[in-house]
């Protein structure tokens, strides 16, 4: 496990630039009320998917720089689970590794010169819930620069799925500060294991983005929304305040813990 951690660190310093040549995807669903119910479409890789355009948090706190001493970053001193737990730990024996590719757009990188450590902290804080409940460990394998194009969140998600389509299996997590990204987060809901899952989260500061990311990856695993009185992070009432799923979604993800391998 030590060698995995080391190669991850080496990978961190090999950013790559995606091409800018893109064709805009026609999207008739722009700006409709696509949160709550979502809309069905086909992703750039031919998968039948549902897309949810999730709203931002009403209480997002903007943090200009990554600062472990800032009150907004309290608890954000994360290191990957494979560094945190000894090899013989019982949790390590049943751990499921999911490779993560962090992709930040030009607006996000311009706003945050520390975007790599910032996104790493968000990812590693968000996966603590998946580790706790499913023994799923997200391991950041690389950081990529990307130019987001599209007039709304769903076009920007499709843009990411096209531009980052060549990455290996895993979760491709987009981070956007594009003013046209009209969502707190957006993701494809897959019916079967797509190999690679795509999502994009708005820059909402570290804490709210962490909540949004957990919710969007829940979509990637095939979760739809819950509504009151179901207490689940897939319910908008709780999306920015709790970090666990209800039992139905819990079982769904448990049964899909081999996805994105
Ligand atoms: Ca991790
Ligand atoms: Ca973690
Ligand atoms: Ca952009
Ligand atoms: Zn959602």
Automatic annotation (TrEMBL):
Basic and acidic residues composition-biased segments: 26-46
Classification via InterPro entries: MetalloPept_cat_dom_sf
Pfam families: Reprolysin_5
Example of a GO MF term: metallopeptidase activity
Keyword Signal: yes
Superkingdom as given in the UniProt entry: Bacteria
Signal sequence segment: 1-19
Region (Disordered) residue spans: 25-46
Record's keyword terms, sorted: Signal
Coiled-coil residues: none
Name the UniProt record assigns to this protein: Metallo-peptidase family M12B Reprolysin-like
Lineage of the organism: Bacteria, Pseudomonadati, Acidobacteriota, Holophagae, Acanthopleuribacterales
